[in-house]
Amino acid sequence: MSKYPVLKNAPIVEAVLDIRVELPEDVTLATLEPFCNSIKERFPGKKERVSFKAGFELSQVGHKVATSNVPCGYILNSLNNDKVVQARLDGFTFSKLKPYETWGALRSEARELWEHYFQITNPVKVIRIALRYINRIEIPLSMNDFKEYISTTPEIAPKLPQALSHFFMQLCIPKPDIGAEAIITETMGSPTETQRLPLIFDIDVFKITAYVGNKLEMWDEFEKLRAFKNDIFFNSITKKTEEMFK
Fold first, then answer.
1. Distance of CA 99 to the CA centre of its chain
2. Cα 217 to Cα 19: distance, rounded to the nearest angstrom
3. Per-residue pLDDT of the chain (246 residues; tens, 9 = 90+)
4. Hey, is 77 helix, strand or coil?
């Protein structure tokens, strides 16, 4: 059981479970089609995902930059657009958009879809696993200090003006005991019509792996990543913020 409370109105706008893989050389976009077809009743929206590539071409008369958009997989949307599956040549991603349900529901559906992806693509190995939770915390504009709501904030030198019109802050925090790392990103949006300031609190926890085959232990590692994510979230927000989402 989690040591943290369940927030009935959690500020999560997107929760992402990502598995990066190394696929056999003969796997192509056509290989992914059966996966897309097997879930098309649940995820009827389909479009190609492309990756942008750039490089230099050198010649005797100089050089030029060559760019291209290369198809690398498919993005599949659910009927009401609150769930997204990515089946790519470098991995699998499952996203749950607002409203967030529970970790158990996210994990179960992601695992079921991953099993389909694995059976069809037969990855050589899993090279990276990650969980990413993007939170939107709307803070009253009448606040005196960000620290009333969140403990990790930018610090301004005392002799400088203390007002902030915008900020973007990113921290990378390793957790050696589980071999993981977190990228924490904070920024602020434009004030809403209800005089609230959106704080985007983005927690991306990941682990570099080398699983060969469909290892059950991978899901134990996801549990550790989730616990790390929860430690970051609940130790970063204040009790005042926590009460907003109960």
1. 16
2. 14
3. 678 998 999 999 999 999 999 999 999 999 999 999 999 999 999 999 988 666 556 656 556 665 667 888 999 999 999 999 999 999 999 999 999 999 999 999 999 999 999 999 999 999 999 999 999 999 998 888 889 999 999 999 999 998 888 999 999 999 999 999 999 999 999 989 889 999 999 999 999 999 998 889 999 999 999 999 999 999 999 999 999 998
4. strand
Kindly report the pTM of this predicted structure.
0.91
Non-local (6+) Cβ contacts of 123 within 8 A are 21, 22, 23, 24
Residue 46 bridge partners (DSSP): 76
**DSSP H stretches of helix in the chain:** 29-38, 103-121, 217-236, 239-244
C-alpha angle 150/152/155, rounded to 5°?
115
Q: How large is the greatest C-alpha to C-alpha distance in the chain, in angstroms? A: 67
Tell how strand 62-77 and strand 168-175 pair up: unpaired
What is the distance between the alpha carbons of residues 137 and 171, in angstroms, rounded to a whole number? 18
Radius of gyration of the chain (CA): 21
DSSP letter at 237 equals B
| Burial annotation 44-60 (CB, 10 A radius, 16+ → b, else e) | eeeeebeeeeeeeeeee
CA angle 135, 92, 11 (to 5 degrees): 10
CA distance 183 to 151: 16
Would you give the distance in Å from CA 13 to the centre of its chain?
11
